[in-house]
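User: Can you model how 2-oxoglutaric acid sits in this protein?
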Amino acid sequence: MGKKGSNREVPNLASRPPVSITLREESSGMKQTKASTKSILKLQHIKNLAIWTSGEASIPSFGAFFGHHLAACSESTGTPPDPSLFPCQRCESILQPGYNCTIRIEKNRAKVSCRCKKPKKSIQNNVVYKCHFCSHRNLKRGTPRGYMKEICPLKAKPSLKPVPGTSMGQKSDGLEKGTRSTVEISKMDEIAPPAIDTDDPVTGSPTTPLVKMGTTLLEGKKRKRNRSGVKKPAESESNSATINAETTVSTSSKRRRKSWTSLKEIAESHDNSRDFTNLTEDPVLLVPEESNQKPYVAIIKGCTSFLWPDAAVPAVTALEKAAHDALSSDFQKYNQKMRQLLFNLKVSFVIRVTHSSTLVVSSHKFVVSSMARSYLLFPPDSKLKLGPSSSLKTYTPHFIASPFFESLRVSGPDFFASARSSADVLFDHQNSEFSEILQEYGNKMVELSKRIIEFVLMSLGDGYEKVYESEFSNCHGYLRIVNYSPPETVEDEEVEGLGMHTDMSCITIIYQDMIGGLQMRSKEGHWIDINPSESSLVVNIGDLMQAWSNGRLRSSEHRVVLKRFVDRLSLAFFWCFEDEKVILAPDKVVGEENSKIYKPFICLDYLKFRESNEQGKFEKVGYTVNDFAGLKFQMSDQH
Ligand SMILES: O=C(O)CCC(=O)C(=O)O
Ligand SMILES: [Fe+2]
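Assistant: Here's the modeled complex, given as structure tokens:
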């Protein structure tokens, strides 16, 4: 975490309106009453969190969350809003120039139209604070001379950062929506450094001080965007955050596009289109290839900032608060907690394999196109030689999982041998290329699965890495190469290529081709499109992991919908416990205060249960590990 505290002076508040009421108060007409000491302390704590998350910690969604919480608490306790804070009118993040907003002077029309008179010292300019989170332009009217200097002092010391609560002024009665700026948003990254005397009555001087944000979700994004370049060695997050902050300020006489890139992109990409009610981003776990590099999170789905789903907010808040209390001096540890949190809260997440894994990606394409040839060109009777009544049983024909679904199974650990045995039946000539590619792909998936399991264990808390050896070292994997035939009609009704189901694995890694159609079901029951991406793999938590983790990790419900009249191909890699393993959540995973919600069971018995109960169909979520091994207290929200 960045340095706390500041050597900044408390700004001159003389020009601020003496009384401030929030918009909520304005509309509700709520009367302020005296708050108890306890509520004042609580409020103070929330205020600290709001300031910290909006500013130094740069966690935009938390910033907005705590900002909102602060406003609501102030009102409920009847405490007047802190006049030194300037919350965004839309998302309620505490606006802090250089961290979560850009400020610029806007021409004071009154001043211009009345040149003859010397403007009053106390109403010199209007200042627009553009919130980087929600892109709202907050206008502060009539700021006094010297106001910008307070925010952007002439000679910033290296450690000097704009600090929340300074120079922000009170929420102005005159705040307006949609006020005009004289500088185009596209120039936001060409921001003049604090050294410029920004309080000149020159309109449109961009004035945000360049202060590097801490390394958090946004930093993850920045790295994601850089992934097409040459891979950089891992760097200490806390160090880089500090170093960057220092360099940025000390070289403030130069215009540096780089340090603002991510913020600019946030502002630009959502300038007009931000819809707070409809955000369904998934975090991305960027998995570096080298084991000494740490994984880091970023955001996908075209959204450049992250909002926790509503259901996750209480848990996030609780952990955030605890992390803030315990780790306020250690940014790196804090970030680690954040990553753990991501894992704990998501039932499925998307992995974007870093650019150095191009091998995997190119293998996808190759395998997919090979299989396209196999499935599309081979006559059904040739494929049926591998079907359910054959000795190999590697081919699942249409009308078993669904009328549209057919698949070929390639089992590890010797993916070559498995592929070869099917290929020998399918191809009338030797085709070792096919088997070699599948071997390479399978082996890559094994490696990746091991690493993902390690990360998943990390997410459960400290010390879980140690159980890897005893619990997961005998896992094995198999691949399923799936072809979905196009439906005859695609009407309003969605055609399910594969109905809703959970996987019987620990984890599943899916690659889908660019046709798309994979959907995950949210906890609230909404289907979320997992948009295809050539360099993305989707990772599902499976039933075995759900049982092993005593429900702390949830098996994801997913399906495939066919929206287009073309074949769809996918590769699913299932990473499973060994058949004979007795699956029982370790006490540490369960936690002292909780009870086990699954009875112990043998892995193979569960697989058989699924097969027999579902009669070969995938789509019945009714028969899962809950039904098989769930004890009285089913999948509660005890965690
Ligand atoms: O085809 C896909 O994208 C998903 C396949 C799947 O969920 C499965 O085979 O279990
Ligand atoms: Fe699946």
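A couple of observations from the model: The chain has a mean pLDDT of 63. The longest helix spans residues 432-460.
User: Helpful, thanks.
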